[in-house]
Amino acid sequence: MNPNRNRQFLLVNRPTGEPDEADFMLVEQPIPVAGSGEVLVRILYLSIDPYFRFYMSEVTPLIAPHPLQEVFGGDGVGQVIVSNHDRHKVGDIVKGNFGWKEYAVAAGDRLERVSPEAPASAALGLLGTTGLTAYFGLMDIGKPVPGETVVISSAAGAVGTAVGQIAKLQGCRVVGIAGSERKARYLLDEIGFDAIVNYNDADWRAALHKACPDGIDVYFDNVGGGVSDTVVTLLNRHARIAVCGQTSHYNGSPAVSGTSIPFALWKTSALMKGFMLYDYESRFDEALSQMIKWFREGKLLNHEHVVEGFEQAPRALIGLFRGDNIGKMIVKVADL
Amino acid sequence: MNPNRNRQFLLVNRPTGEPDEADFMLVEQPIPVAGSGEVLVRILYLSIDPYFRFYMSEVTPLIAPHPLQEVFGGDGVGQVIVSNHDRHKVGDIVKGNFGWKEYAVAAGDRLERVSPEAPASAALGLLGTTGLTAYFGLMDIGKPVPGETVVISSAAGAVGTAVGQIAKLQGCRVVGIAGSERKARYLLDEIGFDAIVNYNDADWRAALHKACPDGIDVYFDNVGGGVSDTVVTLLNRHARIAVCGQTSHYNGSPAVSGTSIPFALWKTSALMKGFMLYDYESRFDEALSQMIKWFREGKLLNHEHVVEGFEQAPRALIGLFRGDNIGKMIVKVADL
């Protein structure tokens, strides 16, 4: 490695709509030195997540805005190359909130060891926060019963592809809402969704109705907006809606729909609940054991969209909001 | 009694907006004769309920439209004057779905005996479906904890006045939303609400914010629409919303608001659940025992708005949608 070259992306501008490449600036810094209790990590993969969009704004619903002129980003997985911490050895694979960098120093106590039983990137997707989000939203709020119909918006996304697989394991009819024929084919052929409705088709509402002949029992919502207005017209009595994300509003567009939801809930005695993964922190181990078990048995697959090259991180984020990915959006920074 | 005079109201027209007196026609029929297993009831009180508005339309969300040219109405309380049924004696007070009539014959098996321990009309309000609706929505969905803030829309209505009282018994701060100064005064002075916000005031949003300095933990929603859009901006994490009614839509107006709700639920991990009283049918006895106990102890009062005279039934219904009532809207047909 070149000790003087540690590329990083700073946030330099707050977008008003979709993020843009000009919102980020690539800089080079020296590779930092690990102090006492710290480790130096060579980053292998970066997690690209919808919530990044909030960070970029001045006003955010849940988290503090990301400061301008500082290194942007979120979780990553990397390999320990220097360790001043008992629990981490050189060569270990670890996960941490490193930001968009090629090398990072972090307190050893704040790093999580990644199981060697799965590809390293899975710790950012199916076997990480993405998979756990799918698990708790579906199992704890959706409470699917065999034979019920589960509808998933943004079905081709990181969380959606995980929810679809878990719902199939529960014996449900699984119907996805996605935005392209390419995604529809993938979800049907590679993941085993029972039906996919393309919301860009003019007659998608009729198609959803047809895909759910017995109504909808569980709705796992990643998107919100007008899609939800249509879904709720098909709710069965005592249906459950898990509100995982509202990506239709993340780029700052006002909420223009959702108007029919309270009335629909009232009409069907349905439940709608928002959640954050950290609501379930005390049950992470339980869920992760189950997910790893299913993964080992070949019942769950880690679907990911890997963008190659550290310098592609901004483009990967832009692509996430344009719907480029099927499964988890990942930037591959370096080979193991 | 005059055996030839049993006044009744027929539904003769389906309104497009608010109901109108011309939607009903007053007719006279002979007083019917009780057959085997039946009783003849002289009606004392009629229950006037928001759900009547659905009945009147061609297209209804939950119940079949009420046929034209047939006797309109819902529950009433009356006195048995002829009985061909073992369980009912002449002089007993009974509750049943009689419709808007002065005398009705009903199958004895379908009548409920009314406890003599409370005024007869209470069986249509606090100690009937109204009070049970308040009880289950608040206790089962709202799950109030002492010290929490409970907000109630349509606070001066039949359900709202009951919810407010039960929430006070749970040790909560209780904030009502109502539409006039007269109602505000009554709710503060007679029921003990901690604060009332008048949604007709230009600055009611600021007033609600001020009335809920610690945010909102439970929202008991009878109204929906734009009021809810404001309430949800003040939700605390893990707040609960019971959707009891959506009266802002009952007169056929489209749902013009509610847009911010899914986003707010997501942001706060809040729960929103619709319900119908009959979801809780297996627990009616439990709830009614508790309500009667509180009533006997003087901890709950039956607030009602009594309109005198059978011929006033249509005007009472129109008044319900104009917000004339504080507490349960009742038509008094006859003295005991």
UniProtKB/TrEMBL annotation, chains A, B:
Sorted UniProt keywords: Oxidoreductase
Enzyme Commission (EC) number: 1.-.-.-
UniProt name for this protein: NADP-dependent oxidoreductase YfmJ
Keyword flag Iron-sulfur: no
InterPro entries from the UniProt entry: ADH-like_C (IPR013149), ADH_N_2 (IPR041694), ER (IPR020843), MDR_fam (IPR045010)
GO molecular function: oxidoreductase activity
Species of the source: Paenibacillus allorhizosphaerae
Top EC class, one word: oxidoreductase
Highest taxon of the lineage: Bacteria
Stretches assigned to the Enoyl reductase (ER) domain: 17-331
Signal sequence, renumbered to the chain: none
